[in-house]
């Protein structure tokens, strides 16, 4: 108590966040699982002397194994799953001209902001859970079953670039009827760095390892989720194919980078789908006000699909990432993700074999009744504090 009160940098208090995790790792009755978000891999290296934006995913998987986790997964897998559901949702709404524009919801800061300040926009929100929640849910409800594990004995951790993700896991709207928590604990990138140091792991010299199957398999589309425009680009790669058409193109340069408002178009069923990507809450207001104006004047919506991230640059610049004084840090971390996407053989969510397996054996099809029951959520207007 006294030490916590007197610790000048609050380090002792932050360490308390690790206690349940250390207890879980030491408890032989528990099976510990962990996922890492796309953005974490292009920031954690900075804590150990690597260049900004260098992708150290392989070393992170290796470090997590040394820390004692039983299975290591990747949130980029959940991002592929989110894309399957969200692209299906877009096609459905577009065909029926229903609640357009569709707005992305994987950023919990943005979700809470909208529930408070733009309540009239709630019907436009995608009902898809975030990649973190989808990976968490499938860990306890699919992986556990496959491996004959009792889901109640799984302790499931998520390493995130973001402090808001700690709030997301306790949202009432995500509570499961049987009381099982899909994700038990969120640690930030900086907290993981501290754990690695406390355990005395020589991070810089670790030999890179692979994540575990099945929830560790991902495409380049899932990986670029960590940068502004990435969710949209991933969705566009898959939407044209799911609509029965051909892939228009793989890369959407015009929605990459740090411009405040970025736009592009694709064609579905010979009709134009107008897209906008925005990041940083000031820019979001501009986009939402335009939509409100169109609605009030009974005009056609200026856009059909909108990606919003609360942090400027997207999750690569999240509040849980390594601190940096470097000006171009956002750009360099995003480059780290796009560079890796280019190198991967698998670049579209619908081609991920793990995703195909889960639909074939568990969820039936994207947008199915079961998929809705498990992978979708809802939003509630909240009082302005
Ligand atoms: Fe968190 Fe920022 Fe990413 Fe939103 S954009 S999920 S607040 S890191």
UniProtKB/TrEMBL annotation:
It comes from the Bacteria. Keywords: 4Fe-4S, Iron, Iron-sulfur, Metal-binding, Repeat. GO terms for molecular function: 4 iron, 4 sulfur cluster binding; ferredoxin hydrogenase activity; iron ion binding. Transmembrane segments: none annotated. This is 2Fe-2S iron-sulfur cluster binding domain-containing protein.
């Amino acid at each position: 108590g006294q030490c916590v009160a007197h610790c000048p940098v609050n380090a002792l208090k932050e360490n308390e966040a690790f206690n349940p995790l250390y207890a879980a790792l030491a408890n032989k009755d528990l099976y510990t699982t962990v996922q890492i978000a796309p953005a974490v891999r292009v920031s954690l290296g900075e804590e150990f002397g690597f260049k900004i934006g260098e992708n150290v995913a392989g070393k992170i998987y290796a470090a997590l194994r040394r820390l004692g986790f039983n299975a290591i997964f990747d949130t980029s897998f959940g991002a592929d799953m989110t894309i399957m559901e969200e692209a299906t949702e877009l096609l459905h709404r577009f065909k029926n001209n229903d609640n357009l524009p569709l707005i992305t919801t994987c950023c919990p800061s943005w979700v809470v902001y909208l529930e408070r300040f733009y309540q009239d926009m709630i019907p436009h929100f995608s009902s898809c859970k975030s990649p973190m929640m989808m990976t968490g849910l499938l860990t306890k409800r699919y992986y556990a079953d496959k491996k004959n594990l009792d889901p109640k004995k799984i302790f499931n951790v998520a390493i995130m670039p973001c402090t808001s993700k700690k709030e997301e896991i306790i949202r009432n709207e995500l509570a499961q009827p049987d009381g099982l928590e899909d994700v038990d604990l969120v640690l930030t990138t900086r907290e993981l760095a501290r754990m690695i140091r406390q355990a005395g792991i020589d991070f810089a010299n670790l030999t890179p390892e692979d994540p575990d199957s099945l929830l560790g398999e991902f495409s380049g589309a899932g990986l670029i989720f960590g940068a502004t425009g990435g969710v949209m680009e991933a969705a566009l790669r898959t939407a044209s194919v799911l609509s029965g058409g051909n892939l228009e193109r793989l890369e959407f340069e015009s929605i990459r980078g740090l411009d405040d408002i970025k736009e592009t178009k694709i064609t579905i069923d010979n009709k134009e789908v107008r897209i906008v990507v925005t990041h940083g809450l000031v820019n979001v207001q501009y986009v939402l006000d335009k939509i409100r104006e169109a609605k009030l004047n009974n005009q056609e919506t200026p856009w059909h699909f909108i990606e919003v991230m609360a942090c400027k640059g997207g999750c690569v610049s999240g509040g849980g990432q390594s601190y940096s004084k470097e000006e171009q840090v956002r750009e360099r971390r995003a480059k780290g993700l796009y560079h890796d996407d280019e190198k991967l053989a698998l670049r579209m969510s619908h081609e991920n074999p793990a995703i195909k397996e889960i639909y074939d054996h568990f969820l039936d099809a994207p947008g199915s009744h079961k998929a809705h029951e498990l992978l979708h959520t809802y939003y509630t207007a909240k009082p302005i504090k």
